[in-house]
Write a structure and sequence with these properties.
The complex is a heterodimer.
Chain A (H helix, E strand, L loop, with lengths): L15 H31 L1 E4 L1 H15 L4 H15 L6 H18 L2 H20 L6 H17 L7 H9 L9 H15 E4 L1 H4 L1 E2 L2 E2 H31 L8
Antiparallel strand pairs in A: 1-2, 3-4
Chain B lengths: L1 H10 L2 H4 L13 H20 L5 H6 L6 H12 L2 H14 L4 H25 L4 H8 L3 H34 L3 H49 L7 H4 L1 H9 L37 H15 L3 H4 L8 H19 L2 H11 L13 H8 L4 H39 L5 H23 L6 H25 L5 H26 L7 H7 L6 H18 L5 H11 L2
Helix pairs in contact in B: 1-3, 3-10, 3-18, 5-10, 5-15, 6-9, 6-16, 6-18, 6-20, 7-13, 7-15, 7-20, 8-9, 8-20, 9-10, 9-18, 9-19, 9-20, 10-16, 10-18, 10-19, 13-20, 16-17, 17-18, 18-19, 20-21, 20-23, 21-23
Classes of the chains: A mainly alpha, B mainly alpha.
């Protein structure tokens, strides 16, 4: 690495030790870079946007609804899909509100006026009680939610024992007075946004319970980093032993 | 040490009396967790007193008497901040796969640190980053600038830690966030002032054990309770990830509930695990830019670099990185467990909006883990923030007292005055950090990521070229530093403008390409290229520096 005028450069080693060290660093660096960045680029190259099943049900149903040619099962399919989207953790409040209006509208379409009025009343009761209760296990509150589920879930062809029914019971707004044109336009975009995902064989292959790409990034890469570090230290120790190189202690 | 342990064991049974029910996620004083936090903090202060610094060598570099495993534990403890303990799970909870960029960035950087710097830094034999910069680039002004940068980076990093401390104290004590920051900040300040780095290093080893235990115990309980492979939760949670992706019907885990009575069930949320889902607003570019910035930032952080001064020789510095990384990974393999189970446990909208930075604690609470265990978890979060903050404060105080005051302002100072100046610097830093932390500017991990990008743009190029190319000279270093600082300033100006809703030109472009969490992806390469070009065009590095590099650092 050194020259007579004391110049050093990583890329121009002049001693045996420096040369071996440089080569080792380059090898490990390349492995490191490919393992991290190469895999993510591969992930990007092979990915394809794949819709969730709920979106596949929603899209044709919504087209029928917008065209004014929808049957009851179209309203139910769209309603179920929107309730499912409302259960997503990352959904923003504005989008949640738009979907809530959409679900209310679907209920209006599949229920008679009398049934709808009763559901509206039940929903108002749930929402009012939620503001008053000190525990979510409050018996009146639970009963009110059950009442919503008993009427609204079958109307949208949702199993009353399911998670969707639970979400429906707490997801409706007080008035359910139809839907704005703006929300009508936004709902398909919202559904598209939250229900389309980048997938590939790397994401669909299950390894030790994980989607493979997730396992690779969250678990395997870290193991690899430790292995790289261990290997470097081991090789440097061997190199120093071979060259009788002793590091000073302060 | 035995006395400390005896005192701790004597006090521990008291916590059993305080095993009150934690049913509220926020807002009430929690007796059990509070006692655990007080016990652990008392332990830290006792250790700090017993192992307090006796002279400047002790204060800055722990007498260079720490073993490589011990140093590895200290590296891990120093590293495992509130951003690791609380922030990573928060990012994954909020933005899914994108959050893994922080896991990869904060671990992969150690490979760079090891192969490019650890041994060489130790052999260079300086106490602080500014010391290295000042000597290597034979410039008092660069030494002063290096010290100021080290202080700014330490402050930026510590703001996130104070945020974490504030969040946990708020959770435990039920007080407002600003008051919680003041209380927690005062305790960490007192501890750092009493102990210095020798106490800090000893404490870091104890803190590591507390941090990792407090993180692991609830994780085993949660995975066992919700019927995942609990013997190795870091692998067992894979099934939970798949449950989040595919959705989990009530019937699949019937009889399992969260602490609020909701079924352990979730609708399909593939965006949690699938890469760069549109709904998260993140792209592959951002993922890679964050990883790169965090990695080079790791190799440029003053308080991380400083850990290599506390081992006896370069070989120990290298092996301490291996141990340190292993100890760090134990936590980083585990953080996604909390975000994944937290997704399911908090999926019912009735749970409401949770403070993402506290999702680790909320997950344990929603999983109905015993209140004392949840308290231990919160204490672990506080310990994580404490261990890093104390290291940062020592690094900042070292830069203030050693690099600025002693080396630039008053070289004839006595060691006693030097320690006094270091302690004054620590107090000033704590006040500044607490003041900024109270503004609650961003998520903990994001605040910390700013410090990484700053380090990547400024200190990393100086160390990388300073160690590996004797041609890098004073003029090149200054030019590179200016470029790195300009990129930093542009990014931070736009961040502040966005926060205060000022309208600046090209804000969308800057937000996309020069975001505050990842601007080093371009800032660091630009600084390196500038350093090289200017160095080639200006006078050569003095022969004595080149000789020192060869004889001391590379031979």
């Amino acid at each position: 690495m050194q020259t007579e005028d004391y110049k050093i450069s990583f890329f121009r080693p002049t001693t045996q030790r420096a040369l071996a060290n440089r080569n080792l660093i380059i090898k490990l660096f390349l492995l490191w870079a490919v393992a991290i960045f190469g895999f993510q680029v591969l992930l990007k190259l092979v990915e394809k946007p794949v819709p969730e099943e709920a979106l596949l049900r929603f899209t044709p149903a919504w087209e029928q609804i917008v065209a004014g040619e929808a049957a009851e099962y179209d309203f139910q399919a769209a309603g179920q899909s929107m309730v499912q989207a409302m259960g997503k953790i990352t959904i923003g409040p504005d989008n949640y509100a738009a979907l809530r209006d959409g679900v209310g509208w679907m209920l209006q379409k599949v229920c008679s006026d009398e049934e709808f009025a009763v559901i509206q009343q039940d929903v108002r009761t749930v929402n009012a009680l939620r503001e008053q209760i000190t525990t979510l296990q409050d018996s009146d509150y639970l009963a009110a939610k059950e009442a919503v589920i008993a009427r609204a879930a079958p109307a949208l062809n949702i199993d009353p024992e399911s998670l969707l029914a639970q979400l429906l019971s707490i997801g409706l707004s007080d008035d359910m007075a139809g839907i704005s044109d703006e929300n009508k336009q936004r709902i398909p975009e919202i559904m598209q946004l939250y229900m389309t995902h980048n997938r590939s064989f790397l994401t669909d292959f299950i390894f030790l319970g994980f989607p493979f790409h997730y396992f690779y990034t969250a678990v395997l890469l870290l193991v690899f980093f430790i292995a790289l570090c261990w290997y470097y230290c081991y090789r440097i120790d061997r190199l120093h032993a071979r060259l009788n190189f002793v590091e000073k202690t302060d | 040490m035995k006395k400390i342990l005896a005192l701790f064991l004597m006090l521990f049974p008291l916590t059993a009396l305080a095993a009150t029910d934690v049913t509220q996620l926020e807002g009430s004083f929690k007796v059990g967790p509070a006692i655990i936090v007080i016990l652990i903090l008392s332990l830290f202060i006792l250790v700090g007193i017993v192992f307090r610094a006796k002279d400047t060598t002790d204060y800055y570099a722990a007498g260079r008497s720490i073993s490589r495993v011990g140093s590895g534990m200290a590296i891990a403890s120093n590293w495992m901040s509130a951003a690791s303990f609380l922030g990573m799970a928060a990012l994954m909870y909020g933005s899914g796969y994108h959050g893994l960029a922080y896991v990869v960035g904060w671990t992969g950087g150690y490979v760079l640190l090891l192969i490019l710097m650890a041994g060489q830094i130790r052999r260079y034999g300086k106490y602080t980053a500014a010391d290295f910069i000042g000597d290597r680039y034979y410039s008092q002004s660069l030494r002063a600038i290096g010290a100021v940068i080290a202080i700014i980076i330490s402050i930026a990093y510590a703001v996130g830690q104070f945020g974490g401390i504030g969040l946990m104290f708020r959770w435990v004590m039920g007080v407002d966030y600003p008051l919680a920051v003041v209380i927690g900040g005062s305790v960490v300040l007192a501890y750092t002032l009493i102990s210095g780095m020798l106490g800090v290093t000893k404490n870091m080893q104890i803190q590591y054990v507390i941090i990792i235990s407090s993180f692991m115990i609830p994780m085993f309980i949660l995975t066992a309770k919700y019927d995942y492979f609990w013997l190795l939760p870091q692998i067992g949670y894979g099934a939970a990830v798949q449950d989040v992706v595919d959705g989990l019907m009530i019937s699949e885990k019937s009889g399992l509930f969260n602490s609020l009575g909701h079924h352990f069930a979730i609708v399909p949320n593939p965006e949690y695990a699938m890469p760069w889902a549109a709904s998260t607003g993140q792209t592959m570019f951002h993922w890679l830019a964050i990883v790169f910035s965090l990695m080079i930032g790791t190799a440029g952080l003053p308080h991380v670099i400083q850990r290599f001064y506390v081992v006896p020789k370069a070989r120990d510095a290298r092996w301490s990185v291996v141990w340190g990384l292993f100890f760090i990974c134990l936590l980083y393999w585990s953080a996604p467990v909390y975000s994944t189970l937290g997704m399911i446990l908090s999926s019912n909208p009735e749970v409401g909006q949770l403070a993402r930075d506290a999702i680790v604690v909320y997950t344990a609470q929603l999983g109905d883990v015993h209140p004392l265990i949840v308290g231990l978890l919160a204490a672990g979060g506080i310990s994580a923030a404490f261990s890093t903050t104390s290291g940062l404060m020592v690094a900042g105080a070292s830069a203030f007292a050693h690099d600025l005051y002693v080396k630039v302002i008053n070289p004839d100072v006595t060691p006693r005055t030097q320690i006094r100046i270091a302690r004054l610097g620590t107090i000033l830093m704590a006040i500044i950090i607490a003041s900024i932390a109270m503004l609650d500017l961003a998520l903990i991990a994001q605040l910390v990521a700013i410090a990484f990008s700053m380090a990547g743009c400024t200190i990393f190029p100086l160390f990388l070229l300073g160690i590996w190319w004797s041609g890098s000279n004073r003029a090149g270093a200054k030019a590179g530093l200016i470029v790195g600082s300009i990129v930093t300033l542009i990014s931070l100006t736009y961040l502040i403008a966005e926060r205060y809703e000022w309208v600046l030109p090209y804000s969308d472009f800057i937000a996309f390409y020069l975001g505050a969490w990842f601007f080093a992806w371009i800032g660091a390469p630009l600084a390196i290229v500038t350093n090289i070009v200017v160095s080639r065009l200006t006078r050569e590095t003095p022969v004595e520096i080149r000789k020192f590099l060869i004889e001391k650092v590379h031979t």
